[in-house]
Amino acid sequence: MPRYGTARCAAHTRDVRSNADWKARAAEGLPPETAQETPLDLYGLITGLPAGTAHIPWDGPDIRIIEHPAHAPGHAALLIEERGVLVAGDMLSDVFVPMLDDVNDTNGPVQDYLVGLRLLEDVADDVDLVIPGHGPVCGADQVHARIEQDRAYVHALREGGAPDDPRVTTPTPGWEWVSDIHTAQLQRLTQSRRAA
């Protein structure tokens, strides 16, 4: 079975893999404690779906693709409609802060992330279970709260302030490095504001 990705994701990963030092650069974005344990050989080896593809082309349950500009080029969430399950990708985590796409944004990384959250919010009432890329799953009773937590974090970043967010202020044990991600994002946004 092919490993599918959105057209934008496939194009981006081809670009990344075209650089001779791509593995070293990819490892820099990983948490230090897992960087050496993370195999990168399969990174980007995906079949790009035609642009605008709305559902996974397979014989299994109907899975809607919710592509959005938040987090990474071609990032998408998957909604298993008949089960009410949202596979959120690298969003809606209760242990990991939103990571903005500062590589390939269209309207600025903050605005792009807010667009992604709005698209997830559009399907939130149809969701019984959220599976984030990091951290525990949550039920329907927590979907809107996680969206609002991510939105508040992104707004705080945009304003250049420190968020009142437990993922940064009192991280779950083992996730302390998330505050380093926050600090780096805040510095990048501050620098880009100064340069503008």
Number of domains: 2
Class derived from helix and strand content: alpha/beta
Placed side by side, the strands forming the largest sheet appear as 3-4-5-6-7
So how many helices?
A: 7
Rg on CA atoms, Å: 17 Å
The separation of the N and C termini measures 46 Å
Mean pLDDT: 90
Task: State the low-pLDDT regions, or none.
Answer: none
List how many beta strands DSSP finds. Answer: 7
Shape: globular
Q: Which band does the percent of strand residues land in?
A: 5-15%
Estimate the helix proportion, in percent.
40-55%
Query: Could you give a short account of the major beta sheet?
Result: 5 strands, mixed
SSE series: EHHHEEEEHEEHHH
Keywords:
alpha/beta; 5-stranded mixed β-sheet; 196 residues; 2 domains; two-stranded parallel ribbon
Q: How does this structure look, described?
A:
With 196 residues, this protein is an alpha/beta fold. The chain has 2 domains: 1-53, no CATH class; 61-195, no CATH class. The protein has 7 helices and 7 strands. Strand 6 and strand 7 form a beta hairpin. Helix 4 (109-123) packs antiparallel against helix 5 (140-159). It is globular. The mean pLDDT is 90.
